[in-house]
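cron nightly-structures :: item 1 of 1
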Amino acid sequence: MNQEAKRHATPASPSSSSTTSLDSGGSARDPHRPPPLSPPSPAMSAAVSPLIAAQLNYLLAHSPLPLKVGQVWAGSKNGRYADRFTLLVPFCLDYIKWDVVFNAGYPSVPPDFVFPPEDDDFHPLIPVGDVKEEKEGEGEGHLSKSSLSDWNSKDPSRLLALVHELRDLYMHYQKKRIEELDDARLKFEISTILSREGIEVCMISSHDRPEEVKFAVPLLDIDLNKLVLACPWRHQQKIYLQVVFPVHTSYSSAPSAPRIKLVSSSELKSLFSVEDVKLPPWLDGMCMAEYLPNLEENLKTQVLEAVASIGARRCFIEALPSLFGRPLEADPVFCRRATVLVVSGVFTFLVHFSIPTQFPKQQPILTLQSSQHFNSQGTPILSPPINDYPWSPRWDVPGMVERIFDFLVDECLNFKKYCNETMPQQQ
């Protein structure tokens, strides 16, 4: 491309674009400020008794678990207030549904809980003394009388404490169910692995499939939230190994290997995607205690590399102003996105940079957006994602930015032609 064309492909004036600080102190919010409360719950869209609403909203705002509220309804057809709701409680990498039943006529009375049919033998609200022929140690699976007898409807934290206590009892209930199975391998796994902090286990029952047992094993003794400066995550981020064993009786064939996969919250993908991790093979006769050390060692290395790559992406974004001017927008925490405004003659367009977690091994994906051409819906015309431009991870960062700029000098002409050809078809 000749030098005349290069002079026309110039960045917009820095004074006309917004500034995003990418220094080490930049953040989307003050890290010392408490995290924002969750969005208004479904309870607030219905008329909920004030005392009950206070309990529910405190539960959603302060629980360390990502609790959710499903349906909200009134127990009385003519009732003024809704007084019951379905609570979705995270457990073993899934959600269990409990119906929480208050009485709007007597809002100071503690709630009842209705558990699903598959847990019909889970009775945590039965006082320990009322359980007939109670076996030694079985009382651990029941809620003591004091947990509900000191209920105070004016204390909004009471429902939170009750739900968490019930969840702990549900964990004990699921563990006990599995210990009673006639499966030597599962008995061994439980005896060797459940001492590990944070492990959850549950039965998976289905009418059309054999019974299975699922383990959710938290990995890495690392606080992932503290690895990222000014991270916006409200809940503690964890990576889990999900292990699903088929249930075998003592007279069945040799046990097969479990199904295994890594699981994390969608929020963690901004830093690290577990889908990119290749799991080591599960060898015949292997148990979880043997499998985990090698997996955790490899996973820790990859997570720390992902954290280090934030710095590489930050350097890339900070190098953009030398040729493109200050970014209009940029992600100051994970440095995954940036947008610049470019002018070529009378043609003005945006360049969106999507920077992968594997940067610089993987190059940024570019998307061009016209500021002057719109489709029939009135939205700006976009180019397809572009990742076929010259790239080498061995280039220094200024060289990467310069190569992209040189590529866009030519590509902007193709994009302008594409926009002009697209417009008549939309009219």
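cron nightly-structures :: done
The chain is about 30% helix and 20% strand.
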